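Please decode residue identities from the backbone states below.
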């Protein structure tokens, strides 16, 4: 991989986040229990984020008007959902840190890479369901642009995952503040 400023910033943020979550495990910080519902909520949030990003990027390639609509929809979706996505990313680091502390760095890294691959596969499968053959259609894009503009389908609005995502967001904010205060 070529190291660009963007890649470096991403990697630095990844390392700092991982260290913050690892530190939360090693000092007096009160951890949040890892549960299957929380892990499922994180999978949901990260899959949705990747799906929405890929869907809107695909739709943006149809024409100039769709490109502008997709950019606006992405910006609005991010404004409403990104804090939960960032918290979900942090949770993935938290679980990785737990696995690494118990089973070694390789086990933690393996967990993370498998989880990310599964998230990507789920997002691609959903996209193929919308665009059979992989070719975007304007009607489907317009329908999804409308759906994604509706806050009732935001991450926090999920009846199944919303509460766990809110708990993870609160924990993420606490870990971040704890790391800043050190």
């Amino acid at each position: 991989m070529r190291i660009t400023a963007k890649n470096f910033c991403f990697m630095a943020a990844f390392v700092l986040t991982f260290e913050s979550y690892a530190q939360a495990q090693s000092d007096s910080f009160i951890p949040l229990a890892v549960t299957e519902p929380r892990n499922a909520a994180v999978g949901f949030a990260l899959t949705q984020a990747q799906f929405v990003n890929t869907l809107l990027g695909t739709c943006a390639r149809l024409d100039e008007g769709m490109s502008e609509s997709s950019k606006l929809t992405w910006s609005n979706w991010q404004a409403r959902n990104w804090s939960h996505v960032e918290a979900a990313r942090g949770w993935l680091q938290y679980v990785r840190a737990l696995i690494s502390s118990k089973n070694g760095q390789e086990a933690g890294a393996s967990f993370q890479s498998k989880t990310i691959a599964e998230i990507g596969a789920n997002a691609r499968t959903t996209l193929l369901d919308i665009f059979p053959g992989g070719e975007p259609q304007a009607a489907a894009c317009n329908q999804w642009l409308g759906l994604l503009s509706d806050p009732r389908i935001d991450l926090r609005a999920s009846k199944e995952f919303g509460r766990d995502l809110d708990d993870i967001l609160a924990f993420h904010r606490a870990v971040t503040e704890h790391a800043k205060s050190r």
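Observation: The helical segments are 5-26, 36-60, 64-103, 105-130, 138-148, 162-181.
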